[in-house]
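Board notes (copied after class):
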Amino acid sequence: MRKNICQIKDAVRERAVSKDVDIEVCEVTKEEFPVAFVIHDYESVYEGAKSYSDFEGNGDYRMFSEEIRTYNGKLYKPLRVTYGTAISTNFETLDTLKYKLQEQAPYWKGGEDYSEESIIKESNFNEKMNSANKRAEVYIVCDGVIWETCGEPMYVILFSRYTFKVFKSSIFFSSFRSTL
């Protein structure tokens, strides 16, 4: 089963043409998408935050557990509502995924330096479509929750020195933050 979502913009001459297209995002069941790890780490957690305005002062810095799941040899973490390094207990919606799959680059070649040579005179629809499909490959939908690829967990060993030269260590698993 696949979710079809996305909007692609095709640049032709000096005007931008917008077209709705279907982009396939893999949808799996929990049986196909088993838990690979459970990560325990200290996080700034905001219960029930649904938007950026909900991240004002009611967070709690505490131990938080997060499932990392596997599918076809890749690891995935849930796409949560975030604000900086703070996370919510709520997950992002499909509207957020639609936004992430849209082209965010300028409509002309060369980025910010616009000149008459920058204008795209031919249709680049297929290029934009391939780009959106490539961005969609890092996401999976399972039971209405969006998951994105992540790196393998790593050990984080903390040493803290107290008085009388006693050292105390803690070991936590932490997921690699950047998406691949």
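Comment from the instructor: Helices lie at 94-101, 125-136. Residues 79 and 147 are 5 Å apart (CA to CA).
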